[in-house]
UniProtKB/TrEMBL annotation:
Transmembrane segments: none annotated. Pfam families: PDEase_II. This is 3',5'-cyclic-nucleotide phosphodiesterase. Residues 357-369 have a biased composition (Basic and acidic residues). PANTHER family: 3',5'-CYCLIC-NUCLEOTIDE PHOSPHODIESTERASE 1. The lineage of its organism: Eukaryota, Fungi, Dikarya, Ascomycota, Pezizomycotina. Residues 226-250, 357-429, 452-472 are annotated as: Disordered. SUPFAM superfamilies: Metallo-hydrolase/oxidoreductase. It comes from Cytospora schulzeri.
Length: 529
């Protein structure tokens, strides 16, 4: 299984050139087929002395599924180019959120940019699309939403935000009106809670008088008051998404003119036999500066897995060091924002430890009380209140006048990017990534809060680590692997080294350190959990 495929066959070939013994097939000790003894492919049986031939076999025969986080070229180009030339014995599976799959169909495999090599729309049939429901689906996989693509590996996907488009036009992503299941589709084409409108109704509203526009504006503000609470120290409704344009009639914000938040993905990948998991992100931005913050739901799912020792590593991007201005991040992370996200995760882990300790020490007198407690734990109000409180913590940490800066980084303060009118221009429509025609696991839980399915997971190979002290480091035993680092292409210090120094410096200045292990990814690296 591969997550994204921006650089694929070339990187595999390079790794084999560096780790495969020279002179394969020329001596009795190195006779073919040969089992590799070192490198990330140790244990793999190769049948050729050529690294390119062996790399082609890995691509065509061994890699079965590609999990695509988002359709940007640097995450898909190798798969696109190599698919036609290196067909294998089975169709490849290209998996992702529905919006990602639709973008690949429309803009890449469309017989214009590249031939339609899929098995849809009379294509060549070299691969098949797999559309995933965010947060899992009861229709496929286990009751906890994980879907087993390859034998022994199960997956669950969540959407995340990857910046927003510079131009204020409808586009793929969280702000697009064309995505059924989004808040815009449910609230009406203009997003004013008027229901789905026909083309004639749309034309009528476009030509309506300012008084009617004012009515819709009033309804919008009333809906905001009902469904959104303003975070302390911020004008932003929690979970909101920035509105960018102003309608000419009555100054009403029009979603079609708003900046559109771009969707990326994160994947929980589980080893079915042991229950051990890793969490891998595509491109992602920090919630504290996002127009549609969505990382919190992922940290809330990850926290109990860290407490029980199931989640061993998080692979997450940190594209730039702290010298990068906020307005030039383009939906990426720097060490300051990554540490802020890890602080939110640590808070969630601490809360999860407290809940688990409380539940373990509480002995129900009868089965009915036990069932009632379980229902209360999964009650929507309880979950919503926890998420609101966590968002408040996130926003409070992000509303400082100046952005956190590494002690090793000397640069001018960037207060422009956090204060003034920009903070007032914040979106107010939450994101719902699951189409209305499909029910996700979250939808079922909201509809039936009393349902409490039990999932029997295999025990991990090693016992979970002992609970961390209540006020000590919460992420002890967790690896945070930094990926997607963008090289500056100059003679200065390696940006990877700068990022690692800044991460460690930020943690050193905390009252309570995170406790995680920071790891910079390198070509040919492998991890065993």
């Amino acid at each position: 299984m591969a997550v994204d495929a921006g650089v694929h066959l070339g990187a595999i070939t390079r790794i084999l050139e560096e780790t495969q013994p020279k002179g394969l097939g020329q001596t009795e000790e190195l006779q073919l087929p040969y089992v590799l003894q070192s490198g990330p492919f140790a244990g793999l049986k190769v049948f050729s002395a050529s690294p390119k031939t062996n790399a082609a076999r890995i691509h065509s025969e061994l890699i079965d599924t590609y999990l695509i986080t988002h359709p940007h070229l640097d995450h898909i180009s190798a798969f696109v180019i190599n698919t036609a030339g290196l067909s294998g014995p089975r169709r490849k599976k290209l998996a992702g959120l529905p919006g990602t799959i639709q973008a690949l169909k429309t803009h890449i495999f469309n017989n214009v940019i590249w031939p339609n090599l899929s098995d849809e729309d009379h294509g060549a049939g070299l691969f098949t699309y797999l559309r995933l429901n965010e947060g899992g689906s009861l229709a496929m996989g286990n009751m906890d939403g994980y879907l087993e693509f390859n034998e022994g590996l199960a997956v669950k996907v969540w959407s995340v935000s990857h910046g927003h488009n510079i131009e204020r036009v409808p586009h793929r992503g969280s702000g697009s009106n064309t995505r059924f299941g989004s808040m815009e589709a449910q609230s009406g084409v203009m997003g004013f809670g008027t229901g789905m409108l026909s083309p004639r109704s749309i034309a009528h509203h476009n030509t309506s008088s300012p008084s009617i526009a004012g009515y819709f504006q009033q309804q919008q503000f009333m809906a905001q008051d009902r469904h959104h609470s303003v975070l302390p120290g911020s004008n932003a409704p929690s979970g909101g998404r920035g509105s960018g344009g102003m309608n000419q009639l009555g100054g009403v914000h029009s979603p079609s003119e708003a900046a559109c938040v771009y969707d990326s993905s994160s994947y929980f990948i589980r080893d079915v036999d042991t229950g051990v998991e890793v969490l891998i992100f595509g491109d992602v931005e920090g919630d504290s500066i996002s127009m549609n913050p969505r990382n919190l739901q992922i940290w809330q799912e990850a926290a109990p897995k860290i407490v029980t020792g199931k989640l061993k590593a998080i692979l997450i991007e940190c594209s730039y060091d702290d010298s990068r201005p906020v307005d030039r991040l383009f939906g990426h992370l720097t060490p300051s924002f990554l540490v802020r996200e890890m602080e939110v995760l640590a808070d969630e882990v601490k809360a999860a430890r407290t809940r688990m300790a409380t539940d373990k020490g509480r002995v129900p007198t009868d089965g009915r009380r036990s069932s009632k407690r379980k229902r209360e734990m999964h009650d929507d109000t309880t979950i919503a209140s926890r998420r609101m409180a966590s968002r408040a913590v996130t926003r409070q940490s992000g509303d400082s006048v100046t952005e956190p800066v590494s002690p090793r980084t000397l640069k001018a303060p960037r207060s422009d990017f956090f204060g003034g009118p920009q903070n007032e221009d914040v979106p107010d429509n939450p994101h719902l990534a699951t189409p209305t025609a499909q029910l996700s696991l979250q939808d079922i839980e909201r509809a039936y809060p009393t349902a409490n399915p039990t999932v029997n997971l295999p025990e991990p190979a090693a016992p979970p680590p002992p609970p961390a002290p209540a006020d000590g480091p919460q992420l002890t035993g967790l690896k945070v692997v930094i990926i997607h680092v963008k090289d500056k292409m100059n003679d200065e210090e390696r940006v990877e080294d700068t990022i690692l120094d800044e991460l460690q410096d930020h943690e050193a200045f905390m009252d309570v350190p995170l406790g995680c292990e920071w790891v910079i990814s390198e070509v040919g690296q492998s991890f065993l959990f």
